[in-house]
Amino acid sequence: MQNQDITAGFQSADNSDSAYLIKFLEDVHNCETVRNVFKEQLAWLKIQRGDYVLDIGCGIGDQAYEMAKLAGYAGLVTGTDASHAMIDMAKKRHSASGLNLDFLVAPANAQPFDNLSFDHIRTERVLMYVKDTDPVFAEYLRLLKPGGNLLVYDVDWDALVISHSHTVLTRKIVGFISDKFPSGRIGCDLFRHFKRFGFNDIKVKACGYSHPLELVKRIIGGIIQTGVNENSFTANEINDWWAILERDDREGKFFASFQGFMVMGRKQKI
Ligand SMILES: C[S@@+](CC[C@H](N)C(=O)[O-])C[C@H]1O[C@@H](n2cnc3c(N)ncnc32)[C@H](O)[C@@H]1O
Asked: Pick from 44, 64, 113, 165: CA 20 to 30 A from residue 82's CA?
């Protein structure tokens, strides 16, 4: 199957090959490092029975489901996503769970809830697809109860490292990928945004994901192909670049790491 451009795809999953994107999310969730980072998020959030939790950009809803087990029947977890295909899949996977878990379609910057509705809000790998993130932070503040937690995890695409003998071309490819995201440097800027929006007790943790070549191809292969289609690279130089990584992989020398940042802050108590 041809790798899809995930920057274009996740900005508008309903107008893309949503089945490809859903399978991609399932496979990413199964990575041990990704699961471990989620476990750490739960340890930071400390969701209690009776808590109201919002997962913005919830995708296929697997993390919302895990959080609903913690919030229990006195609480409620709601997952929202801009994509109908994602929300339909989230409902299909989790509606029969019997948990207090709700899914609905809504863009990150316009959530259909009353002010001060949630004890915790979480967003993972979503803000990189949003050009202007300030209205999303304004929504976080509006929706959180005083003293409520905001936890955001996102990637800094400039900090993608790929061990490759063609360092100049590799830098150019990494820069191209980063610029293709509406907010490719959001991981690095999260701390600044938490400060600007007045969050307290801010914690930051850098989390690197090292994926096998096959998954790396699915994450960045389609974006690089967009670069070929737009004449930012030639097909030959990109074919040679991948061939070197494949040879490295056969020789057990392939290494790439995606750097993300997990940031949590507390809304001021009045
Ligand atoms: C990479 S997926 C991450 C999904 C989920 N948070 C996870 O960790 O698996 C990005 C998700 O963000 C959603 N998304 C992209 N732009 C959005 C926006 N402006 N508002 C809400 N959701 C958005 C996409 O539809 C997709 O489900």
From this structure: 44
β-strand pairing of 161-162 with 144-155: unpaired
Please tell me the pTM assigned to this model: 0.96
pLDDT digits (tens, 9 = 90+) for 23-38: 999 999 999 989 999 9
For 69-106, how does the pLDDT look when each residue is reduced to its tens digit (9 = 90+)? 999 999 999 999 999 999 999 999 999 999 999 999 99
Per-residue pLDDT, averaged over 182-198, amounts to: 98
Distance CA 91, CA 35 (A): 21
Give the C-alpha separation, 80 to 107, whole Å.
8
Centre of ligand 1 from the C-alpha of residue 106, in Å: 11
Asked if residue 126 has its Cβ within 6 Å of ligand 1, the reply is yes
Q: Is 154 in the pocket of ligand 1 (CB under 6 A)?
A: no
Burial string for 191-207 (b: 16+ CB within 10 Å, else e) reads bebbeeeebeeeeeeeb
Distance, CA 123 to ligand 1 centroid (Å)? 8
54 CB within 6 A, ligand 1: no
Q: What is the pLDDT of residue 188?
A: 97
- Domains of the chain (ranges plus CATH)? 6-157+183-209+260-266 (3.40.50.150)
